[in-house]
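Lecture 7, part 2: worked example. A protein chain together with calcium ion.
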Amino acid sequence: MDATEVIPPGNRPRWGCVASAVLVLGFGVFILLHPTTNCGPTKGGAQRLQAQTAMKGLYIALAGFQAEYEVSLTGRLGFKENEDHLADEVLLRPLIDAKSELNPRKTRFYDPPEGKKGKNGLWRAPADGQQMQLRDPWGGPYRIRSDSDGDGKIVNPEDPAGERIFSSVILYSAGPDQDFDTWKDNVTSWK
Ligand SMILES: [Ca+2]
Ligand SMILES: [Ca+2]
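Predicted complex, written out as structure tokens:
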């Protein structure tokens, strides 16, 4: 082709259209790979966030107790290293109930929302209101494990032979399947 030859409009390469097609195709693939990008968190994602928020609230309450009394509540309760407990009335009462003998200054360290239909908040036994348990967004309890020997580390319940977790307390939920042994859906305070 001569350098001065004029290409008829119909035969010109339509790079703008090609580029647009690539962009649209790329964007479609992006949406497929990131289905929540334009739609906010999925329901499951929102519930996981709620569980993480609840665990953080309890962690802060326990830190408040420790700051007030210069002793850990889990230590006062005799929780052993590598032992899992449920976040139930034994743990919650001294943080919530000013009448607990473990909380003589009657400080309210923790004020969790009441769980609706036994989910996502504080559940109290209908019979007497005395028994209580912190429930995750799926209606299951939370587990708590504490550093009782004071080395600042806790065995990872998901991987006992693996690296220790650096924390005074860890918490975890069994997730939507309500089975603590299936880790894929569990929600944990350490990752
Ligand atoms: Ca330890
Ligand atoms: Ca599970």
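The chain is about 30% helix and 15% strand. Residues 43-188 form one domain. Keep this in mind for problem set question 3.
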